[in-house]
């Protein structure tokens, strides 16, 4: 049985629809749940009771209410502290394996193809909080001999994403027949991965035995923002002009970075699974 904490968000919603879960039992927990017995809010500890009473053994920890912003102190003051507290209670109630979702922002301003062995250097409160949770939960899980998987997420896109993100904004521009699409710098290189492909990789790590540790979750393919936009325009058979410099370039991100996915590819290959 897999317990998915935070199943109502962008990534969580994709995960619960994954074909890999079709023949595997799971329970979904969310603040958006219409079932009062499956309601969960990271900030409200009284909603944890039903989850903990099930004594979950295999847990996917997705919930992180402070998103989509990256520099609010709430990442530290609430999400981090509550996540550590919940981790302790999950362990006390018999957890055997916990899978967490981290972020590529943990790498900070480091450029290039990034592997899991590169030290984290977070540059905003979101990545600082995530990396702190990784360190704290890793120590706790090691102490109590619990499997600890840290999924370091790169740049997912797809249906249900925050409407202000690149992909939904582009789709809106196409649907409303805009002539221009505003960006900060289209030459920035990122690692884009469709959320359903990302979910398949995460679910694989949940359902199968893999070594504890950090796993980059991305496509492994560097792609400029311009190339990504043009690929979507080609798919939707639409044309518009990319308007550079409309938004300021973020100072907490490098110019170009993407995931080295050798580690997860090796694990999936050993399991005779495919991440494509």
What is shown here, in short?
This protein is 33% helix and 19% strand. It is an alpha/beta fold and 276 residues long.
Number of domains: 1
User: Order of SSEs, N→C?
Assistant: EHEHEHEEHEEHEEEHEEHEEH
What is the CATH C-level name?
Answer: Alpha Beta
- Helix tally equals 8
User: What's the rounded overall pLDDT mean?
Assistant: 96
Tally of strands: 14
Largest sheet: 6 strands, parallel
Strand arrangement within the widest β-sheet reads 2-1-3-4-6-11
End-to-end C-alpha gap:
25 Å
Radius of gyration: 19 Å
The CATH architecture would be 3-Layer(aba) Sandwich
CATH topology: Rossmann fold
Q: Structural class of the helix and strand makeup?
A: alpha/beta
Percent in helix:
25-40%
Coarse shape = globular
Tell me the CATH superfamily: NAD(P)-binding Rossmann-like Domain
Q: What amount of the residues lies in strands?
A: 15-25%
Uncertain segments are: none
Brief descriptors of the model:
276 residues; alpha/beta; Rossmann fold; two-stranded parallel sheet; 8 helices; 14 strands; 33% helix; globular
Structure description:
The protein is of the alpha/beta class and 276 residues long. The protein has a single domain, classed as 3-Layer(aba) Sandwich (Rossmann fold). The chain is built from eight helices and 14 strands. The chain has helices at residues 10-15, 49-53, 74-92, 125-143, 166-175, 195-207, 225-235, 262-270; strands at residues 2-5, 26-29, 58-61, 97-103, 112-114, 147-153, 155-157, 180-182, 189-190, 192-194, 213-217, 223-224, 241-243, 257-259. Strand 1, helix 1 and strand 2 (26-29) form a beta-alpha-beta unit. Helix 3 packs parallel to helix 4 (125-143). It is globular.
């Amino acid at each position: 049985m897999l317990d998915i904490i935070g199943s109502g968000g962008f990534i969580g919603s994709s995960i619960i629809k994954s074909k890999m879960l079709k023949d595997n039992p799971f329970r979904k927990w969310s603040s958006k749940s219409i079932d009062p017995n499956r309601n969960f809010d990271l900030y409200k500890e009284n909603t944890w009771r039903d989850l903990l009473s099930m004594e979950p053994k295999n847990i996917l920890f997705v919930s992180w209410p402070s998103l989509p912003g990256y520099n609010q102190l709430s990442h530290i003051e609430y999400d981090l502290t509550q996540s550590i507290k919940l981790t302790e209670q999950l362990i006390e109630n018999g957890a055997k394996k916990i899978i967490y979702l981290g972020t590529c922002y943990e790498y900070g301003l480091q450029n290039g193809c990034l592997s899991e062995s590169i030290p984290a250097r977070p540059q905003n409160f979101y990545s600082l909080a995530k990396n702190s949770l990784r360190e704290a939960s890793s120590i706790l899980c090691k102490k109590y001999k619990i499997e600890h998987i840290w999924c370091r997420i790169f740049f997912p896109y797809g249906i249900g994403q925050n409407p202000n993100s690149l992909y939904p904004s582009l789709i809106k521009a196409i649907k409303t027949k805009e002539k221009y699409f505003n960006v900060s710098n289209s030459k920035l290189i990122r690692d884009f991965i469709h959320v359903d492909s990302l979910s398949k990789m995460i679910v694989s790590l949940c359902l199968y035995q893999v070594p504890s540790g950090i796993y980059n979750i991305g496509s492994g393919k560097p792609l400029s923002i311009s190339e990504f936009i043009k690929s979507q325009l080609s798919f939707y058979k639409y044309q518009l002009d990319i308007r550079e410099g409309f938004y300021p370039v973020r100072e907490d991100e490098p110019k170009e970075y993407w995931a080295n996915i050798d580690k997860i590819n090796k694990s999936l290959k050993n399991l005779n699974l495919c991440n494509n």
